[in-house]
Amino acid sequence: MLAIARSNADVLMTTEMVMVDEIPFPSQITTTKPLSLFGHGITDIEIHFLQIKFTAIGVYLEPEVVKHLQQWKGKPGNVLAEEDDFFEALINAPLEKFLRVVVIKEIKGSQYGVQLESAVRDRLAADDKYEEEEEEALEKVVEFFQSKYFKKDSVITYHFPANSTTAEIAFTTEGKEEAKIKVENANVVEMIKKWYLGGTRGVSATTISSLANGLSSELCK
C-alpha cells in the first residue's frame, strides 16, 4: 500500500516517485479520479554549448486515454513523437489532463508569462482565432504570473477537466499560499494544451518523446 500525501490543491499524490532531472514527480495523482504519469521531460536552452534547464514537466492522464488512440496501436514511440495528428487526438480526447511544472532555474513570473503569451498568441493568430475575447483572457493569465517569483522548486499546475473547455492554473511556492486562476476562453485553453502537448511544436521535445513512448507501450498492452 502506498502512502498518500495531499498537496495544497485538492490533489492527492502517491509517494511512489519518478525522478525527472532530480525532481520527484508522483507516479499517480488523484484529482476527481486517479491520473497516471504518462510522460515527463524538461524545458531547456543551449547557450555556447552550455545547457540551461528551466523547468521539469510531468503529464498526467486518465489510463482510459488509450481507448481514444487505438488507430496508432503498434507504432513505436519515436514514430508517434513525429505525428502531430496523434497529439491532436490526445489533446481532443474528452478526458481529464493535468500538467505539473516544477521550476529548476529561478526566473521572474513575468518572464514565464511572456513565453506563454507569445506561444499561445502565435498559435491563435495562425488559426485565425485571436479576437478581443482571446486577448483579454490571455492578458489575465499573463497578469496572474506577473507578480509571482519562480523560486527553485516552485510548482505550476494546469488542470484540464474532462469534457470541459476550461482550465485551472495554480502556482505554489515556499512560504506563500497557493494562487489560482480559471481560464474560461476555449481557444486560449486549447492553445495552452498545445504549448505543452502539441507534438513537434510542443515547448519540450523531451516531454513529447517521453509521452509518445509511454503511450506507445500502453497501446501495446
Automatic annotation (TrEMBL):
Highest rank taxon of the organism: Eukaryota
Signal peptide: none
Pfam families on file: Chalcone (PF02431)
Record-linked InterPro entries: Chalcone_isomerase, Chalcone_isomerase_3-sand, Chalcone_isomerase_bundle_sf, Chalcone_isomerase_sf, CHI3-like
Keywords recorded for this protein, A-Z: Isomerase
Domain Chalcone isomerase, residue spans: 20-216
GO terms of molecular function: intramolecular lyase activity
Family statement: Belongs to the chalcone isomerase family.
UniProt protein name: Chalcone-flavonone isomerase family protein
Organism in which the protein naturally occurs: Hibiscus syriacus
